[in-house]
Q: What sequence folds into this?
């Protein structure tokens, strides 16, 4: 069921949702959280589809906030709220409210969203793109216990990581971090089987891919060894190499779907490591609402502390040397054995 309301307010929207549920014969719907999506018209469809798919695992009230830019000074002085309500089969396993804010109301979106939040339920705010620099300080971000961004969608992903680290607040997270969860789990499991410590590491992936940088910073922070970041033709993250006294541990994924795990003294193994869509990533983030301390530590480690190299070609040509930053290596204490990584 879909209901369109023009020049409305939050009270009328709430009343319309209650009436819609009664008309469907489901006056009570078990929803576990409110997901607030802040987006624009161009990206609203994809964001709604992903949120709807994720709601099958996490039944939720989805509130989409679309700020409509006014074209003339006169229209910017006014304020209008239009809403589209979706209940039942049109809204996944919950209910959806699409809000279109016009004029002066664009600057007071939180006052519109606040009455629509589920009582006594967690709030998650998601910016598919165009996230503010200070998530917790944003009026809409302040409503959420969890704040989700995606630095991969920005024009400068690596610079965006620095901004996220500077303004980090407990509850912040990023889908670029979620994308490497299977990699971190696989590498942690591989290191649990090794008796020797890791002496250095290399992370290989596309240029300007924040997931590659986050994985490299996670390894450097957890293992306290130099980690080199090299480039490949992709797709995404393609390989991780860990040096030990017994030999090299390699997790290589050339096609974005199936990876090969090579470990000293063991036969090579094929492991499923496919690239996941946004709905799967969002569903994973909605499973936890507490601060992610591992993400915080990795993010604040800093891209500048990683060793760098000029990209190798797709055919495997040797990389040309490139000057590393002043702090190219993580602080190393030769006498102490390196720690083993853990997935979280």
A:
């Amino acid at each position: 069921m879909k209901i369109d309301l023009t020049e409305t307010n939050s009270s009328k929207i709430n009343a319309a949702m209650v009436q819609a549920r009664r008309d469907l014969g489901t006056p009570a719907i078990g929803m576990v959280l409110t997901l607030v999506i802040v987006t624009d018209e161009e990206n609203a469809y994809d964001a709604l589809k992903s949120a709807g798919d994720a709601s099958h695992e996490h039944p939720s009230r989805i509130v989409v906030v679309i700020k409509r830019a006014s074209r003339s000074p006169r229209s910017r002085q006014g304020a209008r709220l239009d809403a589209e309500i979706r209940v039942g089969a049109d809204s996944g396993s919950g209910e959806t409210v699409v809000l279109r804010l016009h004029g002066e109301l664009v600057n007071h979106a939180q006052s519109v969203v606040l009455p629509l939040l589920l009582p006594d339920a967690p709030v998650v705010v998601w910016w598919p793109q165009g996230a503010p620099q200070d998530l917790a300080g944003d009026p809409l971000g302040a409503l959420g216990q969890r704040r989700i961004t995606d630095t991969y969608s920005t024009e400068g992903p690596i610079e965006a990581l620095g901004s996220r680290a500077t303004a980090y607040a407990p509850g912040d997270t990023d889908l670029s971090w979620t994308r490497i969860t299977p990699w971190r789990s696989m590498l942690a499991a591989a290191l649990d089987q090794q008796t020797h410590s890791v002496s250095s590491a290399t992370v290989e992936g596309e240029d300007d891919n924040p997931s590659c940088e986050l994985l490299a910073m996670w390894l450097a922070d957890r293992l306290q060894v130099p980690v080199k970041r090299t480039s490949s033709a992709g797709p995404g993250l393609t390989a991780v190499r860990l040096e030990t006294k017994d030999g090299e541990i390699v997790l290589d994924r050339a096609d974005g779907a199936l990876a090969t795990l090579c470990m000293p003294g063991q036969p090579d193994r094929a492991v499923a490591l496919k690239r996941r869509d946004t709905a799967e990533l969002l569903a994973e983030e909605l499973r936890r609402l507490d601060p992610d301390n591992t993400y915080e530590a990795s993010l604040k480690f800093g891209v500048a502390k990683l060793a760098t190299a000029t990209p190798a070609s797709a055919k495997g040509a040797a990389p040309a040397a490139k000057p590393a930053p002043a702090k190219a290596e993580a602080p190393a204490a030769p006498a102490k054995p390196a720690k083993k990584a853990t997935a979280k």
